[in-house]
Amino acid sequence: MFxxxxxxxxxxxxxxxxxxxxxxxxxxxxHVTRAAERSGLSQxxxxxxxxxxxxxxxxxxxxxxxxxxxxxxxxxRIQRQLAGLxxxxxxxxxxEVFDPARAEENYRIATTDYPLLLFFPQAAREINKLSPxxxxxxxxxxxxxxxxxxxxxxxxxxxxxxxxxxxRHEVLFDDRCVCVMAADHPLxxxxxxxLDEYLRCSHLxxxxxxxxxxxxxxxxxxxxxxRCGSLTLPLFVGAPAALPESNLVATxxxxxxxxxxxxxxxxxxRAPVELExxxxxxxxxxxxxxxxxxxxxRDTIRxxxxxxxxxxxxxxxx
Length: 318
Description:
The chain is an alpha/beta fold. It is 40% helix and 22% strand. Helix 10 (214-222) links the parallel strand 7 and strand 8. Helix 2 packs across helix 5 (73-93) and helix 7 packs across helix 12 (292-309). The radius of gyration is 31 Å and the shape is rod-shaped.
C-alpha cells in the first residue's frame, strides 16, 4: 500500500501553490479583471494564470455564456473545498502568536532540588499565574535526562555544568562552591581549603548524574584528579543534616548555604580556588529554539531568576 506521502506527491508535484489565491479569486468573482484587481495582478497576468490553472487541472473552470462567466461542475466543487482550505492554509503559514493566558501547554522540566530550593517555586507560581490553563510537570533529574530531551519527552532542564554539545544552554546565574562540614571538623576553622586538603577529605556526594556532581567532578577529571565519596545522597536538601558528628565534607553552594545553612553545628569554608566558581545553566534541545510557547517558558524563568538574584549573566544561548 502507498502512504499519504505518495498520494500528495502524485497530485501536487509540479503544482505552484501560489496559484491557489488567484484561483479562489477567479472562482468567486467569475470575472478576470475583478479577480486580477483583488489579487494585485494585471489583467494579462491573471489571464495567463487562468490558462495555467486550466492546464494544471485539465478543466476550463470558467466558461463564458451570454451573462458572463459560469463555473464548470469541477470548479464548483473546487470552490467549496477552497472555502475551508484557504483559512487553514493561512493559519498554517501565518506567524505564530503565543497567548499564555489562553494556552494549554504541557511543560516538562527535569531538575535536581537545587533550583527547587532557590528559585523554581517562584517560577512555577509565575507560570501558573500567567498561563493558568497550562500544566507544569517537574521530574527528578536522572542519568537519562539528555536522552529524554533528545527524544522530546522533556522540554527543559537545569544543570550545574555545560551540557553535551548537541544542546542549547545559557547561564542563568553564577554561584560559588563552598565546603560544608561539622563545626568541630579539623578543617572547620580554615578560611579556604587547598586542593590537596580537599582531596584528602571524606566526601558527601550528591548524585546528580552517574553518581556525581558534574560541576565538581568534571572539573577534577580535567585536572586528572578524583575525590573519595564516603556517602552519596540523592538530594541537596538532606546534606547539611548529615554532616554534624561526622568527618564528611559536602560541596554545596554559597547561595544555598546563605538561605538554609544557619545551623551552628556546621561550618562553611571556601572551596579550593580551582573548584570555586560555578555557573548554573538552563538547557533545551535546538528544535525548541523558535517555538513560541517554549520561548515564553524560558523568558518567564529568566525574568524570575533575574528578579530573585539580580545578576542574570547571559541571554545568549550557546
